Amino acid sequence: MKKIFSFVLMLAATLSLNAKQYCQEEVIKGENKIYLTCEKLSEGNYQIVVEADVELTGLGGSFCEVNGVGGYQLNAPGHFVLSADKKKITCAIESTTDPRLYTPLYVLMPGEVNFGEFNDIEWGLCSQDVTEYTITLVQPATGGTISANVAKATYGTSIILTATPAEGKQLEAWDVKDAENNPISVNKENKFMMPASNVTVTATFKDKVDLTPATFYGKAEMEVATFNWSITRNADQTLTLAIEWDKDIEGAAPQVTVGSVQFAGMTASGKSASYTTSDTFEDGDKPTIFFYIAYTGAAARIDVDYTVGAENEKPDMTAIDTIKEGTRARKVVENGNIVILRDGVKFNILGSRL
After folding, report:
1. Average pLDDT, the chain
2. Per CATH, domain 214-315 is 2.60.40.2450
């Protein structure tokens, strides 16, 4: 299966097809059939819809370029919504430029099919629906109140929700559904795209979690640059992941993986980038985290050993700056600690053998 998928990936990368606009287009692959819609709903708002006559499970390893950066994983939690009858998948995408699907659309359906021709899509308005649909707010019984920036909106409009928690409470989750009771995804900025349907909005609140921010630091020396990274557990239980490097890297495009979810398009500024998760974490959680910096000709991956709530001092590298490349000793960072390797034997920063 993996070999077939890899072959289709390479095949899709070599194909150069004329750009095409998919507006509920019937697409057939062997005995499998889907109906594909790729729309630019409004400025900055895009949508991929996959429909079928059979039940779907979701999407596999399908990657999209968003805001000019690759690595946006369509099958990541929160990126797509499966309809109640399991025959329709909707992916809402926010991007400042036209997104580009650069790997096969991998649909999890009977046969798990790679629809590999969708690496060149012309995004446009497939629908000219100007109907205004109603947004009904159902106020939570306890915990706080909710509001929306508008009471009615046309299909494709970006709706902004606001939660006002009661004292000692905080927002736990939004619950937005269309007229057929299908869930609608709300992003970390409390926005959702208006479907061609009336919607109902409610929310749940929970007791406020007030934590003292804690920061864990690390450093990794790669051939291309030296990277400093940090993970801050915020008072609202989110994580802010930041990374910076000491040299100009041509074509650097950073992303970070938390658990099994890849987040492309980290907010980059010069030789640094950062990302704050929308998910919350409890102290003691140990999510898989790694930073990935793709650049011209290669990439650097930095794996992190981190327990939520842990903190340490920012590494001081001055004590071992005299160690040069080409000698028998080199410096590395393991679990946030500086370690000297001399002929493969580990020593700590003070020179004691480990």
Report:
1. 81
2. yes
